[in-house]
């Protein structure tokens, strides 16, 4: 190896031992994600109520069995989005399907997505 080659090799090794200078962090402007968020699919469910029963009682359930739920008849039902409670509603008939009429809606900051 020639002297120049050794010097080049030493320079390369020195650069490897020296930690790289940290790149400056660019301050990015906040992005408006509302357009993207509006397209994310969610599952909306209407919860009639719930009941806690033993496995023995569940094993005894047959067609025609009645299980009492924790909601009173006529009480507003829970609206859930992906399992999270967002409000309450009542059941209505929409043509041949069931629908829901919103009676109460929690403020989840979703109004920003409606524009």
Automatic annotation (TrEMBL):
Keywords of the record: Cell membrane, Cell projection, Chemotaxis, Cilium, Flagellar rotation, Flagellum, Membrane
GO cellular component: bacterial-type flagellum basal body; plasma membrane
Coiled-coil segments on the chain, per record: none
Bilayer disposition of the protein: Peripheral membrane protein
Extent of Low complexity compositional bias: 19-28
Region of interest (Disordered), residue spans: 1-28
Superkingdom as given in the UniProt entry: Bacteria
Domain Flagellar motor switch protein FliN-like C-terminal: residue ranges: 37-105
Membrane keyword on record: yes
GO BP terms: bacterial-type flagellum-dependent cell motility; chemotaxis
Protein name per the record: Flagellar motor switch protein FliN
The organism of origin for this protein: Craterilacuibacter sinensis
Gene: fliN
């Amino acid at each position: 190896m020639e002297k120049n080659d050794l010097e080049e090799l030493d320079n390369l090794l020195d650069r490897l031992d020296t930690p790289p200078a940290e790149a400056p962090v660019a301050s990015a402007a906040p992005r408006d994600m509302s357009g993207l968020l509006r397209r994310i699919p969610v599952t909306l469910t209407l919860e009639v109520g719930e009941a806690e029963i033993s496995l023995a009682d569940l094993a005894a359930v047959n067609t025609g069995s009645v299980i009492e739920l924790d909601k009173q008849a006529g009480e507003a039902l829970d609206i859930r989005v992906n399992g999270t409670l967002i409000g309450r509603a009542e059941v209505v008939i929409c043509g041949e399907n069931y629908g829901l009429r919103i009676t109460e809606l929690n403020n989840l900051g979703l109004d920003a997505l409606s524009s």
